[in-house]
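Quick check before the chapter quiz. The format below is the same one you will see on the exam, so make sure you can read both the input and the output lines.
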Amino acid sequence: PLQLVVEYERGIVSLKLASTEDVNEVVAHIGNCLRRICPGLSPIKIMKKLSMEPPERLVNMQALWDNQSVAESGPCGGFSQMYKCVCDWLGFPYREEVQWDVDTIYLTQDTRELNLQDFSHLDHRDLIPIIAVLEYNQWFTKLSTRDFKLSTDVCDQILRVVARSNRLEELVLENAGLKTDFAQKLANALAHNPGSGLHTINLTNNAIEDRGISSLSVQFAKLRKGLKHLHFSKTSLSPKGVNSLAQSLSANQLIPNTLTHLDLSGNILRGDDLANLYNFLGQPNHLSTLDLSNTDCSLDLVCAALLRGCLQKLSVLNLSKSVFSHRKGKDIPPSFKHFFSSALALTSINVSGTKLPPEALKALLLGLASNPNLKEVSLDLSCCELRSGGSQILEGCIAEIPNISSLDISDNGLDSDLTTLLVWLGKNRSIRHLSLGKNFNNIKSKNLAPVLDNLVHVIQDEESPLTSLSLADSKLKSDLTIILNALGSNNSLTKVDISGNGMGDMGAKMLAKALQINTKLRTVIWDKNNVSPQGLQDIAAALEKNFTIRFMPVPIIDASQALKASPEKTEDALLKIENYLLRNHETRKYLQEQAYRLQQGIVTTTTQQMIDRMCVKVQDHLNSLRNSDTDTVLEDVKMAENFMRDARNSKTLLPNLYYLGAASQSEVNGSSAGPIQEKLESMAGEVTRVMDDQLQTLLESMVDVAGNLCPHVMRKTNIRQDLIKASMGKMSIPPNFVKNVLLQQSGIDIINKISEVKLTVASFLSDRIVDEILDALSSSQQKLGELLIRKGKPLVQQESLEMEVMEEKAPKRSAHMSEYLTEVERLEDLDTCMMTPKSKRKSIHSRMLRPVSRAFEMEFDLDKALEDVPIHIEDPPPAPKLEKRPSGVIAELPSEEGKKLQHYTKLRPKRNKKQQSSKITQVSAAAPQEGEQNGLMGRVDEGVDEFFSKKLTKMETKLSDNGECKEINAPLRSKSQRSLRSLSTMELRQVIDILLLVQRPFLKSSDSQEGGGETDEKKKRDSLVVTVSEEPPSPKTPVKTSTAEPAKSKEAKTPATDQSSSSDRSEELKTPDSMDEHSEDSLKGDGKPEGKGSPQGGRRYGVQVMGSGLLAEMKAKQERRAAGAHKVGTNQLPGHLKHTLLPAWKAFAVFQTQRA
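Here is the expected output.
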């Protein structure tokens, strides 16, 4: 009992003391020191061995240590003191920066995770004492490192901590360069620590292989506390290793009730030999997250196993890049659909990269649709090779699925199938996020326009729940402006991802214009768009006027390229963008004035235009019934007048509703107090009084607690009163603090929300009331029309009214838009006769879309222009002599074969000058000869000057029975000189009809010579091509003239043509290319022309009468004429045809030559 022996690393110390009490006192002092260094641990656990005789002395010693109080351990469980002692014990240098980081940063963050990356700048040897502290420290429960290769010494120290610590719960060593031997040593460490509290093991991206996982599996089956998280992603496992792991998980009875996360992604598990894994998944368990992505496992077999055991808790299922082992001709296993219809907690389903057959996709969607337990499901079907078959399945199911909140169908090769699919997606009322990227790579430009138009309809739908849209990596380029033009007035989207579309600076300009008026967007992602410093400047300028965008990641790819071009301009733009985003995060007053003005400018203006048109029609009927004295008629007239009065008053309906409740505009702007401000101010006073009372009570309580802890000092005279008096100055709050908080922060948020709701309600009421007014005016017009019919008075002709309206509107058009008539305007003209709420909303939606910029109309894409031109490898043989075209047929193109290289563009028409040089005269003189050599009849610009300078007067021609042309009243009138391209589509159609009408007698005459030839007027129309191109103005500047004078009537006689030319022309009318192209265009209809060259797609300006097989057709004609057909000169054309048809065609040819 008097002997004391102490054994430590350097040797043994033996002492003989005077008494047993002295020995006990020395042992107790050693134990107290260990407790002070390692708070929370018993000295007996720290000492390797403590033996005392008799054993009762040890029991008494333990009781003594337990009864003694320990002082505060210090930050993070006394880590710094432990670290100093461990460094001294192991002989490593003490790093003060480690102590400072833990005592300051870790304490401030209140984290219990020791991350080795925080000390990765130190030498590997310095990490050893840091890790060794965890053997005794009771604060930290997690040790982690990611993407940091660990040395052997560090790994050994980690294993020592695992073997001896009962406090360590999570071990995360991702991509640490660990091998199979580490996993085997980790298994041994777990075997030596039966009381281990480790429940999370993450060895992702370490090559532990099957041998390592087999060693760990043996210990997993013996863990007393089970496991919660297992992450073995990318660990080079095979089905054999996974089966070993699953077998051990099934063997431990605790693990099915404790394991919630299982990650085996990135391991090749191809094949059907995963019986143990399927058995584990098939038994009842508490898995909430299962990640088997990139494993090539069988999707249907996994779902069959999950159906048996994972219905209750499973919420995240990641089976991307798996395999669906379904063979053609066999039915989909019923368990596949049954799982999705029976799951109770699914929130995320990811099957991206899995080639799903249409039947499997249908089973998945129908299973979700029939599951009443699921809500807010995120479904990822990206890169599943759905194509047309999958698109049809989606069309049939997606509209009725009520529980999908996020749908990703990107990179599925849907292309033109999106046209119909988007219509059905728009009918779904649960999808809030939609991703469509990488589905436009193989789509033709003519098919892209309807897709983007339907997408615009989806996002513009008033009832659409869509709040997030992704078109990332779609490479839409300039076509993206169709979406950007719809963003400005959009009221639903809060997040848009348009990155990777290459829209360029013009797209950035359109995005900037949309951001200036949009008030709903919060997040915009737009990198990888080939934007220059100027585009960044445009976005920065737009954000200056936008107060709602909160998150806009820096376009790193575009910014890095822009920095090379203009560093100063780019840095300035990026700095402005960051400052404006920071400003938008601050609470500020944002009344809905901007949104109100947008509503008033688009909706109200469009609605009033429709009401005005309807009022004009009703007023015409009222004027006709003014002298009626029948009581019924008078009653209907009076009712119509009342309706018209309400219609006039409806112009001020929205402003009156919006400003209702505000005494003045200053109150709306917040310059005067309203009821909410007054209530908040009164509340501020009450809150201030409560705060003062609470602070006073708190101060007195603090002084009382200090008196209890330090009673001797607090007994001094007046010290309590002095402390309270001195502390009052420290605890005072500014008097306006509460008022400012309530009014400037909470009050502003309340006012902003009220303003938003008020505008919504006012717009809804105004819209419904206007609908009622339109219905009333329509019914009243119908009644009045019936009364006029009964009285025998003719109704006002709609066609004449429309012509007058068009003639009045034409001079008021802008310079750019006066040249074309968009499809939207044509639809509005069609709906003019029936002013219904449906037509009103259609007009409003069309007004909400920004028109295509003139800059895009000036661009020319050769690839798109030649997309439908047939390719002919063999050229026709050269014609020995130039043949003359028959009358009424367009001049053919020159032959390409057997010619020398010549400078064709020198024949391009020059601008008219005041003084022409002799050189120009010579070129003009030589032009006809060269034109004859090139295969054209005369100069290519022959008659162009006359065509562009000629006054366009009334054309009055009429065909008599004998084929002569007499005067008729043509619908084409012009008060000023206009070129062919300045005509609207409707007027161009009338020009075509006139030209065909003039052509008619000569075609009849030539056909009659042949006998039985085709004389169908539709065939004649097929032989004529007139294309309206969206290009810059013609090279010949038109000269303004006075009002056109009526032209005199002309008589045309039928020229004699031989039988061979008539036969050739008849064959031309029946060319297969022209017939096929015309049939395709006729199926599309005139209302939706397929133009090329404008990003607006379906809303093209112009009409295409015949298809694009013109080149092949002309070459075929040359080949036939080379056989020896008769020649017909241009001088045989009648005068009126030479001055209308031929100059127009040559002007178009000159224009196309300039473009080339």
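If your answer matched, good. The CA atoms of residues 455 and 756 lie 26 Å apart.
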